[in-house]
Design goal:
The protein is mainly beta and 188 residues long. It has a single domain, classed as Sandwich (Jelly Rolls). The chain is 10% helix and 41% strand. It has two helices and 13 strands; from the N terminus they run βααββββββββββββ. The strands form three sheets. Strands 1-2-3-11-5-9 form a six-stranded mixed β-sheet. A four-stranded antiparallel β-sheet has the order 4-12-13-7, with no helix packed on it. A hairpin with a 6-residue loop joins β2 and β3. The longest helix is centred in the first third of the chain and has 14 residues.
Amino acid sequence: MTTLSTFTPARVLAETVPVSTSTTAAMLRWAAVFAATADLSELLPVTNERSWIPLSNPAGWDAWLIAWPAGSDTGWHDHQGAAGVFYVARGVLTEFSLAGGRSAAVSGAGEPVAVAVPTANWTDVRTHRVEAGRGRGLGTNHVHHVVNEYEQPAYSVHAYSPRLYGMTRYTWRDDTLVLTGLEADTAP
């Protein structure tokens, strides 16, 4: 289960870092500076559930700080056409993603294609261990599942452009990943 933190963060030093374009490299640079300059545990204490807060930034991206207690995860999802990054600020996260970035979702807040549409099978899954100080770019069709498999809590910084309007959810049925529904206007 995930929860949205009600803590409202103060402005942090990373907001003053200039960012000129909405590129993956610029997002990763911004996330790295934010992670290095912010007191993450003061902004968002780790609880028993994955939690997050929105972050302002000079480029106007949809950005989030996420706290990951041991064993927390996102479930399989995509970002409905938004491209972005996630940067591990502290700890280690494991990302399981589909090769080729296939998504059954439509961009924006549209209706999903038919529920239970086969999207992929286990041979399409790739595993990436992302340690503190590293990040991953997420294309517009990126389908993934992120988990903290370790005993130590983790923090990650996420940025999306265009705005994250919601997520498409998927689940495994036997050896096939299928679309199960849309969540509109949700956080990561």
